[in-house]
Amino acid sequence: MFQSPLASGAAFAPVRLVALALIALCLAAAAPSPAKANPKYAGIVIDANTGETLYAYRADSQRFPASLTKMMTVYMMFEAMEQGKLRPNTPIRISPHAASMIPSKLGIRAGGTITAENAIKALITKSANDVAAAVAEHLGGTESEFAQMMTRKARQLGMSSTTFRNASGLPNSRQVTTARDMARLGIALQEHFPRQFDMFSTRSFRYAGVTHRNHNRLLGRVRGVDGIKTGYIRASGFNLVTSVNHNGRSIVAVVMGGRTGASRNAQMEKLVAQYFPKASRRDRGPLIARNGSTNFAIRGASIASIPLNRLPIPAFTDRVAEAAPAPAAPVVAYAPTPQPRASVDPIVTATAESRSGWVIQIAALETQDQAVDYLRVAQARAPGILGAREPFVEQFVKSGVTYHRARFAGFASKSQAWNACSALKSHNYSCLAYQN
């Protein structure tokens, strides 16, 4: 923040004071500045040609996705169409459960149907919650089962900080994501379904005699914007994921937690205006593989190269652990099932670095008991990876708050630790590897 030299008692000529004031104004206008008093705000801009992070603010902090959830619902529909499980004219039945959803909705009565193609348009434009629930039941049997399918797909795409509990984004304290994960999903939609992605640019959708406008007001107003999705619930604030493609450049930008739709849109326009010209025109090819591997480090640093004192403070919402920086801490809701204790006892609790060599961390939790249980569950679920490792809990204090790192020691080399982290992905764990 610019500080006038007058604060230190220096005397300056009026002309110089004017110059300093102009410099301060220029600095203030140089970068998009989210409202500092808004704790819900998070944002990111990713170069979709290279994977480079052009801008990030609390991009790895947990947020509620709201109707950004429907991006994954649509992803699942696109994939089902490619697999022959859905056709554009496939009828999707509206169950009593789907019909009971609160607005925004199309209002189709229970027993009615909508074609898959119209369902996609309804999700993209109207953000219809009744249609989202109907799609979930059609593809997953139940909405809760479909939500598990969505979460598994998120893990395959590298969205390690996202958990879905429903198909619409209606309030659920355990349905969480991050701005970075939403950017990753936006890029995946473009890369994996280039023909279908054009549907996100649909400005309006007419159904049963009613025209529904797309909630994304940047379409047609900001050059190059071709999607993707808006979202709002009271807990999340106003969210927006935006894709911009023009003249060889391509970005995906995310704004979460806006106080109003207008302020959210204004912030997005600022991000696009500043960072789109900085995007590369060189396309590196696909950035996100469908099988879970990625061709670029979206976080911009290897997991072993981040100093411990730069780790973000873990935050907790309904006992869900916040993401660690690279890759993220597990985002599975904290609800460990009882496991045999003998195989992992004793678990050491330390207040300082107590292990030498390579160590991995799988979570940072509020209490020692949570961390201990988390380690037990992990070792029971992945005995081939963690059975011979030494679990321990390490306390650390940040801003007067104590947290507990759930960690495993006993790795003889960097490759052993990194291989363990990679293998834990198949068990829906992410981890941080480092050397003491």
From TrEMBL:
Q: Where is the SPOR domain?
A: 352-436
Q: Origin, by domain of life?
A: Bacteria
Keywords for the protein's UniProt record, in alphabetical order: Carboxypeptidase, Cell shape, Cell wall biogenesis/degradation, Hydrolase, Peptidoglycan synthesis, Protease, Signal
GO biological process per UniProt: cell wall organization; peptidoglycan biosynthetic process; proteolysis; regulation of cell shape
Q: Where does substrate bind?
A: 229
Q: Where is the active site?
A: 67, 70, 127
What are the boundaries of the signal sequence?
Answer: 1-37
One GO molecular function term of this record is: peptidoglycan binding
Signal is among the record's keywords:
yes
To which protein family does this belong?
Belongs to the peptidase S11 family.
Kindly provide the name given to this protein in its UniProt entry: D-alanyl-D-alanine carboxypeptidase
Print the organism lineage. Answer: Bacteria, Pseudomonadati, Pseudomonadota, Alphaproteobacteria, Hyphomicrobiales
